[in-house]
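Risk register update: the risk of archive-format incompatibility is retired. Evidence:
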Amino acid sequence: MDRKLVKKRGDFIWLIERTGSMKVDGIIYASETLIEGMDDKVAEQVCNVANLPGIVGASYAMPDAHWGYGFCIGGVAAFEPDEGVISAGGVGFDIACGVRTLHTGLKAGQIRPVRQALADALFRHIPAGVGSTGKIKLSIDKLDDVLAGGAGWAAENGFGTPDDLRFIESGGCIAGADPQQVSVQAKRRQQEQMGTLGSGNHYLEVQEVVEVYDRAVAVAFGIEQGDVKVSIHCGSRGLGHQIGTEFLKRMAASAKEYGLHLPERELACAPLRSQVGKSYLGAMRSGINCALANRQILTHLVRQVFERVAPKAAIRLLYDVSHNTCQEEEHSVDGVMKRLFVHRKGATRAWGPGRSELPAEYRSAGQPVLIGGTMGTASYILVGTNESEKLAFGSSCHGAGRQMSRTAATKRWQGRDVARKLEQDGVLIRSASMRGLAEEAPGAYKDVSEVVDVSDRVGLARKVAKLVPMICVKG
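Archived output:
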């Protein structure tokens, strides 16, 4: 990034001062190395978001930030309800893409003897890849029930237990979903995609906890060194993408009607109180519930596999949190508590201790923050902080963040070579696409450990544990 665009304001804080039509400053959290590696487009998009009506605080970018559509990926912005806007580009096309981490009750030594069989069984049983479909076939009417009920619908229909819901953001179902605002085309795309991983950077990993940084919080979360966890990273599949595509067009078309001047088309938005804004909220919340139900069904499939291959396992939820959402939350602004609409695009909610919304077991520690890495590096479990609520409305990074395009990655790596190298390093890879493996080569991403260290040292979230992959199922 051109250093003329940003001014250093702390060890890991970079300021873009408010100029022109910007309504707030821009703030990027990054190390020297990470800021050097960021494209100038990140700063430009941070500034563009700062131009939007009703924005409060600042326009933020997390340490894993990179260019996206409208908002940068890793972007955070909060808007007040009366004058503020909601942006489809500020949520992203994969609505409520997120990470769910599961306890297995097993240690790594118990998994190693059955690792090959487990990898094969997970790959056979869990649909993955572009356009993948599952065994669940839903009518439009039944899909409406999913969009209204979220993970609760899944649990009620035999894909889990009521206790699972306690460990899911928003209890597994966000209020205010309106399936009638979701097009028939979007629903048709989803009719056979419930319980599927999809493609791209989505994955299912069996992971070993190799390091614990905060023992007290780890105890609260039920984490010990040597534990085996399962992490699922996916979202709302075709339905979410269709919602994003359709509302991006609607918002762009109605911008002049609402007096909105967009720095770029992909930043399309609508006033929160407008009909388009209300319609998108209802559709987006339906997309969130779709993603939560999808990850719940995938959890059920994981349980089935472990029952057959590793019957001593006891699969329980650690937590599930999304990182492509807009949520209505209460935050302090200039010492006054206000209801705000917080966009997090490629950013994870990171609430500190004391929030009543957290499970009782975690309330004194804070919210688990689940950070996905790459197939060949590591993932992390962090914990939210009260300081984070002051720094970025309770937000943190969400992963490593790309540093190379998918096209560039396929020119540099071959999928079979990537798989071979990872297996040599002890990671069993199962994938439906060799091209997909090349696109997702570990070298195409930033250093996730550095991203997490910045988040920790700034106070966005604190490190709790490091996990390395043993098995990775990719689309």
